[in-house]
């Protein structure tokens, strides 16, 4: 239940909204709206249930995009750390999240704040705050009826009134006192709010839960990895999975957290989820006799009404390298080899682009999209299993091995988009490697970073071989990928990591790079326009109001206190506030970038 301080914040949010005169009439978001999202709005994380991040708006197009300018900007206060939220837009209001699970609503015409809700997350681990591996990030909201739904860093799922920001209901989705957290955006399917969790590195067991959107009542839960066999199994799926594990994996939880990656097929009534890495990373510790360790690093299809598993496809059997498969999922209808196929596509950390039949889970194809993939030489096109490089595995007897990609992956959480006119999927990709070896002194420590893999040269020993040279560009690329032929069509180099891509009917792809937002010709990749935003940023969306199309995106702050973790670290450079930025045709000019530094390695938007 909310505490007194939180209640005061809610009341303040309402008072601020009423005083501003911008608490607007709200039309409920029903199932029909989610099934056929209005062109002018953005009602769910991916823009539609297929998660295409595509807008059918074309007022801003390849012939006039050079006229883009600033419509308005709004400062996002108290947001040290990376912003990763994809906004929602309904009835002229933008809803989004900041770091530390802050939620806000702003007027989509003017950028004025309507309300802001701070859940009061304890920010210190020492004081009982959540354990988080990668900063206090949050990727966004879900919307249904008169509510928006947020997953909070402390494991709660909260329903807020869209007009006022008042809490309607809240449930604790994770065990109190354990190292679970939530960083992903919920989804709404069939009157249910679905949410997973994070925390595999700290030693937890992954699962996805569905709650009644109106009341918050728990309706079903699907665990992604088996628990202690002595306690019995929740389902036949967990009983089958346990046969692929060994040892006492449940002591450290097993992992498999679903911290991102969902899609929904209403015709099949299937909810698709991507599952995470093992806990610990090292299979030699987690499951000492080997095994595939189902359902780690998998795409899993479950019945949206019951949570019962229909099928699965495992991208990295027996994951040894933190190759999560929670990266964005996308549903497409394609003609492949003269046959109409309903597919699900994915570009996970392990560096292969997968095309899978979404009705049956049957493997169709997979090809490498990264310039640097050494853990496997390919995917067997008959069985769908990886052709592993035998030298990529490491155990307690080996000295370790350099493997590509590294734990950051060839593609991470960053949304990818699809353009039905070009038939291409657009997503950022990168190259990395990491020295994997078994931590001989590993002992499970609640609250600790339980990877089973030492970090740093000293931990690995002075005899560690030199790091191999990478073939891919240092800053990474944005790829245009043909899912029918499973091949690259074009690429552009980018400087540093940032948000994902947005595709529009204006023959445009918006993408990040070098602290700029770029617009490319969707067919050829030609750069048509760029605007300097001053920092890295999240993923843009498009909406239309009063006959004007907008592009809106959250932009990270920079300077002291805006470190990656958001725990008050220091960074060089001037203070730039985090903010929401909206662009329109013939808006105000964006600022010029600062002159380049003398150091050739400075700059970037990573």
Walk me through this protein's architecture.
With 606 residues, the protein is mainly β. It has a five-stranded mixed beta sheet with strand order 1-33-34-35-36, with no helix packed on it. It has a four-stranded antiparallel beta sheet with strand order 2-39-38-37, with no helix packed on it. Strand 21 and strand 22 form a beta hairpin. The longest helix has 17 residues. It starts with a helix and ends in a 21-residue tail after the last strand. The N terminus and C terminus are likely disordered.
Provide a brief overview of the structure.
The chain is mainly β. The protein has 5 helices and 39 strands.
CATH level-3 fold name of the domain at 198-412 and 434-467: Methanol Dehydrogenase, Chain A
User: Major sheet: order of its strands?
Assistant: 1-33-34-35-36
Mean pLDDT: 90
- Roughly how many Å apart are the termini? 38 Å
In DSSP terms (H or I, runs of 4 or more residues), the helix count works out at: 5
Number of strands: 39
Biggest sheet, in brief? 5 strands, mixed
Rg over CA atoms, rounded to whole Å, is: 23 Å
Architecture per CATH nomenclature, i.e. the level-2 architecture of the domain at 198-412 and 434-467: 8 Propeller
> Which band does the percent of strand residues land in?
25-35%
Give the proportion of residues in helices: under 10%
* Structural shape: globular
Uncertain regions: pLDDT < 50 for 5+ in a row?
Answer: 1-23, 563-572, 599-606
CATH superfamily of the domain at 198-412 and 434-467: Quinoprotein alcohol dehydrogenase-like superfamily
Structural class: mainly beta
